Amino acid sequence: MISVLLELGTRNEFFSVTASGHAETAPRGFDIVCAAVCVLLRTAVIGLSEVNPQVNTAERGFLTCTVPSYAEDSLARLQFTAEFLANGMKTLVKEYPEAVDFRVKKL
Q: How many CB atoms lie within 10 A of CB 80?
């Protein structure tokens, strides 16, 4: 199972995401659930590049991305990223509840 924790700031802005595990719905390299989670996370990280996120992908099946501080003019981007990830992950949980665990934590 893939576990994803999205942490939001006080204004529903992206603070961090941590993902670990494997969906195990198909052999490695052929798992559409792993691929979907990967695409959502990679797109979010790329979208956050202007706010210099701290990203750790030290091992396969693990990712953390944190934005500990940001300029006020980046708030909308961080809010959009949080909404994008939440909507995408909720859709995957609905379709593949045995493969994805998604939680949101407000700081």
A: 14
* DSSP at 98: T
One-letter amino acid for residue 45 of the chain: V
Tally: H helices and E strands in the chain: 2, 5
Three-state secondary structure call for residue 96: coil
CA–CA distance, 76 with 56 (Å, rounded to integer) = 24
Q: How many domains does the chain have?
A: 1
CATH code at position 20: 3.30.70.1490
d(C-alpha 47, C-alpha 56), whole Å: 16
Q: State the virtual CA torsion across 32, 24, 101, 4 in degrees, nearest 10.
A: -70
Amino acid at 39: V
Look up the domain containing 74 and give its range. Answer: 2-106
For 29-66, the pLDDT digits (tens) are 899 999 999 999 999 999 999 999 999 998 989 999 99
DSSP label of 1: -
